[in-house]
Amino acid sequence: MPILLAALAFLLPLAALLLWRHFRPGQEPSLTLVIAAFLAVAIGLGGAIFYGMSRSLERGERYIPPTWQGEGERVLPGRGAGAP
Fold it and tell me: In angstroms, rounded to a whole number, what is the distance separating the alpha carbons of residues 38 and 36?
């Protein structure tokens, strides 16, 4: 399912462009629409950078991968731990 969502997110701008060209042949998008698209991309990139920076490990921490707890009942998510 995540692959399907990633493919959809990747193809959505192309679909929007093709729909625009189909319903408005020969007409260019307005300046307002171009600015709104640019701002949407900038906000998306800023959010991705913020999320990546907030989820990163601290300097010196090591990554502990997900592990089973008990008899296969629960999976502990991956996490950071202090230096060995």
Answer: 5
